[in-house]
Structure formats: structure tokens, C-alpha cells
Write a structure and sequence with these properties.
By secondary structure, the protein is an all-alpha fold. Among the domains are: 57 residues, no CATH class; 98 residues. Helix content is 64%, strand content 0%. It contains 10 helices and no strands. The longest helix is centred in the middle third of the chain and has 29 residues. The radius of gyration is 35 Å and the shape is elongated. Keywords: Membrane, Transmembrane, Transmembrane helix. This is DUF4129 domain-containing protein. InterPro entries: TgpA-like_C.
Length: 231
């Protein structure tokens, strides 16, 4: 009877088997494997958003109310359900209809002088500027005073304010009618941009300088009318 042939295992295979991770990992290793697997992009994409989780929890609560047993401490209340539906409807309306308006407002030209719904007169803007100055809010006072100056020049048909008109655009148009005030107009525009869009706090000096410019322009006859500004 012939003896069985001996099986020779290469040393490289023995080394690889020895280095391979165990099939039954300990708790820390298993936790690491699970975390690595869940960190893959496909799992992140499938994870529900906070809004989805919020509405899912509300929907589960409604279903629990509707299927509550007679012995349950939570009894079905039709009025409460109607109120809940109205609240959810209001939230959905705010999310789907309020967001486009907010994005449109955010999408306005950066640096624009007026918001779309600001139709205050120059007198109203000057009053607002003085009130802000009295309160020590130099940023708001500077903003409102430059808007008052811009509105007054528009009322005199010396400049034309359009959607997205910037403070520097106001200064460029106004300097055609008041070339001697060119430097002060651009200084006023810089002050407006600094407090409105760059986070500056403003100062009494810059506000009073802008106020003096506004008052001088009111008293000064323009040298010429900008082309296209007057009718």
C-alpha cells in the first residue's frame, strides 16, 4: 500500500495567512469596520435630511394617534389633528414659497443702494438718518443719509436710480451734475459701502461729512444735467 504524498505549503502562503485579519474581530475592530463602511458616500446620500426626519416623526405621531387603543392615555382629538395639519401646511408654505423670495432678495446686485421695497421719500430717509444718529447708530445713520441724498438727486432728475444701482454708480452719475463735489461724492459712497456691506461701525465724523454734502447739493444748482437722467 502506497503512502499518501506529502503536501508542501509554500512559506509565502503561511506568512499571508498569519498576517490576515481574524474572521471574528474583537469589539473595537468590528466597530471600526462598521464606521468605515458607513462613512462611504452611498450611505451618506441615503441618510434622510433633518427636515425629512422632522416630518417623518410628525407623521408617525399622527399614525399613533389614529391607531391608539381605547386604553391608551392619548385619545384621538379631531380638533387637534386639524390644527396640526394647518401648522404643517404653514411650515410647508414657508419652506416652498418663502425660500424663493428669500433667494431672490439675496440675489440682488451686491452693493445696491436701495432694497426693492424701499420707497421712502428723501425727507423720510433724512428723518430716519437723524434718529439713528441721535441713538448713536452711525452705521445706520450713514446708510440712511446716503439713501436720502440719492433719492433727492433722483427727484431732481439729476440721476436715475435703477434696480441694482450701487453707491459708486450714484457718485459717478452725480459728479456730472456736481463736478466740484466729485471727491466728496465718492467719499460718501465709500462710507455707505463700508457700513452697509463691509461691517464697519461708522463714525460721527463720516456721518456729519455726508450730511454736509447732502445739504450742499440741495442748495447748489447743477452745472449740467447727466445725459439720459433728465426727461
Amino acid at each position: 500500500m502506497e503512502s499518501a504524498a506529502a503536501v508542501i505549503v509554500p512559506p509565502q502562503l503561511l506568512t499571508a495567512l498569519a498576517a490576515a485579519p481574524p474572521l471574528e474581530p474583537d469589539e473595537p475592530t468590528g466597530r471600526d469596520w462598521v464606521l468605515q463602511e458607513l462613512s462611504k458616500p452611498e450611505y451618506a446620500q441615503a441618510r434622510p435630511s433633518p427636515i425629512d426626519e422632522f416630518f417623518n416623526s410628525i407623521w408617525e405621531w399622527v399614525l399613533d394617534m389614529l391607531s391608539a387603543s381605547p386604553d391608551s392615555p392619548f385619545t384621538f382629538n379631531p380638533l387637534l389633528l386639524i390644527i396640526l395639519i394647518l401648522v404643517i401646511g404653514a411650515i410647508l408654505a414657508l419652506v416652498f414659497f418663502g425660500r424663493p423670495r428669500a433667494l431672490a432678495r439675496r440675489g440682488q446686485a451686491p452693493g445696491s443702494v436701495f432694497l426693492d421695497d424701499d420707497d421712502r421719500s428723501s425727507a423720510e430717509l433724512r428723518t430716519a438718518a437723524r434718529a439713528a444718529a441721535d441713538a448713536g447708530d452711525w452705521a445706520l445713520a450713514t446708510t440712511e443719509r446716503f439713501r436720502a441724498l440719492s433719492r433727492a438727486l433722483t427727484d431732481r432728475t439729476l440721476i436715475a436710480l435703477r434696480p441694482g444701482t450701487t453707491a459708486q454708480g450714484v457718485a459717478r452719475d452725480a459728479e456730472r451734475a456736481f463736478p466740484d463735489e466729485r471727491a466728496e461724492l465718492h467719499e460718501g459712497a465709500n462710507a455707505f459701502d463700508a457700513v452697509r456691506y463691509l461691517g464697519a461701525s461708522g463714525s460721527r465724523e463720516r456721518y456729519e461729512r455726508l450730511t454736509a454734502l447732502d445739504e450742499r447739493l440741495e442748495r447748489t444748482k447743477p452745472t449740467r444735467i447727466p445725459v439720459g437722467a433728465a426727461t
